Amino acid sequence: MTGAAVRDEVLAVPFAGGRAGTAPLTWGQRAIWHAIGRTAPNDHYFNLGRVLPLADRGAPVDAGRLVAALTALVLRHEALRTRLAELPDGSPGQRLHGDGRLDLVVREEPDPDRADRTAEELLAELSGHRFGYAEEWPVRLGAVRRAGRITHAVLALCHLASDGHGAEVLVRDLRLLVRRGSAGPACPDTPLDLARRQSGPAAGRRGRAGALGAGPRAGPADDVRRPVAAPRSPAFWTGRLVSAALPRAVDALAAGHGVSGSSVLLTAAAALVAADRGHRAAAIMPIAGNRAAADRRTMVSTLSQDALVVLPLPDDPAGTAVFTDLLPGAFAASLAGYRAASYDPAGWDALLARLARERGTEVHPYCCFNDMRLTERSAAPGGAPDAGELERLRGRTVLDFPATQDRVACRYCLHLTGDDAELTVTLTADTGYLPPEAIHAHLRALEEVVVASAAGAPPRLADLGGLLDRPRARA
Which of 103, 281, 297, 351 measures 20 to 30 Å from 381, CA to CA? Predict the structure, then answer.
């Protein structure tokens, strides 16, 4: 904030002539609505935000041009004019509106050196409080203006309307609408039509039959089932590791073993959870985009759902198995999990309840993994790194605790963001199950496992527990 220097103007973004209708929630919306309910009143945790710079290229943009582009964006993507609604049977559903008006908050920033920072501050304000799901539009619009020209557009999104991939689609389309007045053909499918199909009998059978296959039967009952300490207040802490070594190491391992970079990191996280809890298998739930079908790739909606990857550890009486031995099998297991990750959440809940009755104990991993980077990316240029280069890059690693939360829907939640230069890994955990020192230990160990493996010295699986116990002075 810039104190008294801040001046905001609120402009109208009207839309009219769109389609209207009601439908149940899609499977993806049901999943996030369940998570929102478990996290409320701190459910702003799920809000998504994007900043689009508009002064970096092309002709200057004024407020009128941005309003016209935003109107076109709202008409193009039905999710942006859809609110939560109660259906006649009392269940939650969605109502698409054909006409209405959104507000655009325009913040003046006379200092060109502060425009980027002001945009981030405005995004934090717009996304920092929960949405009114039934009475508020699921997107909050903002902009930064200097000398009559828009320098940044800001979008704060309700997760009930869009997932991370959908947010990237919105940013791309908004840039094209501002610059060219057109964003090309719209997505052939819509959330409303998808919801109606998924609530039909054929989709219901598939959703119940899918429910992530046999995965829950193969994994441990609960990878984070035993509290180990009195929880802190707030109970959930977020640890953050920012590493310049990880992108190079991940790319090298992925290329050397014919797997994806995301699979490398998921395998490392799962193996460390298993070592920490003393299990012979790890169950972890990565977020699946569910956009393999061509007619959904540019849909703005919440299609993402939890997949389930069960990683069995090999019988290793001699203690000679190393981390990289896990990569081929883990890659295959992750692909199987992603393929089964479009399902009716009610079927998943029923399956877990039935297994809990059979086992006499709760069955749920409570571990999630969310790679928020673009999935279609090539390895960074420069060839395989050597051990010396990786160690020098590790000297720049930063480890801290940037945030705490009163309530989050899972006990271990790993998020990945970044690019070829740096990878940011955040671990949000319930401190009753993973105390702050253990949160940092998992992040340090993740970097250690991946970097050492890329340097040609993969740690033995029998030694992973020791990595979690060993402090590292540099952190």
Answer: 297
